[in-house]
Sequence to fold (409 residues):
Amino acid sequence: MALINENYLKLSEYYFFDEIEQKINAHKVIKPNAQVIRLGLGDVSQPLTGEVVKAMHAAVDELSKRETFRGYGPETGYRFLINSIIKNDYNSRGVNLSTDEVFISDGSKSDVGNIGHIFGRDNIIGITDPVYPVYENAAVMGGRSGYMRDDNLWSNIVYIPCTPENNYVPQLPEEKVDIIYLCYPNNPTGIALTKADLKKWVDYAIENHAIIIYDGAYCAYIQEPDIPHSIYEIKGAKKCAIEIRSFSKTAGFTGLRCSYTVVPHEIVGFTLYGNAVEVNKLWNRRATTYYNGTSYIVQRGAEAIYSKQGTKEIRENVAYYMTNAKIIREELEKGGFTVFGGINSPHVWVKTPYNMPSWRFFQQLLYDIDVVCTPGAGFGQGGEGWFRVTGFNSRENTIEAMNRIRKWV
Ligand code: PLP
Fold:
């Protein structure tokens, strides 16, 4: 008799964004002619840039000839891409990394979930609330969340409240945590941490032998000067932080799939007997066992964003989305909504009117004016009564959605 992983039964049957998708599909059945505008999902709308496309065409040509054909590549990524990442994303910010500290993967969602694999089940996990739901879901599926308490929260997870009162900046927890997920600029609140904010977490982690999983999926959207792009800009972070970054939102790779995870050699975890073990070795073992490498074509495409022209092109796309975010922010503020984010992030975080529950607001917005937002409750209890809107749609759709909302309000 085959037994299942019963941890899966502890979660609802569908992932949060699939649930939204189902509701949109149901809406389309009821109103088949509706011009639905999606300001909810975190997918991009601008096509791949010229340099990326050129590099991938050249890679396809290479693979089409016997002399230049390549089969399996290195599981953890090609040196050409790793070197470009180190030089452009890290050396340029005063951070040195060796090539075996950077692992290329097929998307940060995979690594955010898989990283739990190398840690023990009894760790106490710290998660800011509200936040990208994968951290909690992965902890539950991996049997690391403990049991569900009466307040509908997991016993092995410490929820770190981010609220309008603390400007959505997480404060250090009173309880001790071992693994901390930080996502900045944050999904869904759009808030970024300053160097001083982040330093507190790095100091906490070093002091408590904790490890920070730093999800920097939106780092390309940072506009303000005092905001660190990498956690390694904070002194000591290489002793305690794993950084996960993605080409998805930086360069429109949501469909191509490419990301990287940095695991510095200095980070150690402990056995039950207190022996220190280098975490990089475990992640390398996991990556080389479970993964056969991101496609060569995609890695050549990712490398292309670091050329002079490639960088210019992706910056133009980021600026385009950030202008959308600014329009959303300003229009919703004018409409009397309370708004956070949208300054160092494409995400704008908005209070529902009259304290309406977020799923009800989502339904109402969809039903009345065919606009999709993301209900805040899907990001954790702290998201109830809020909704997320993103700048990732086209300019025309963003403006049209704001017009509809203005009339509707
Ligand atoms: N991390 C955060 C915070 C995200 O919002 C997302 C996607 O929306 C991801 C990771 C996943 O990105 P990827 O496309 O690299 O899997």
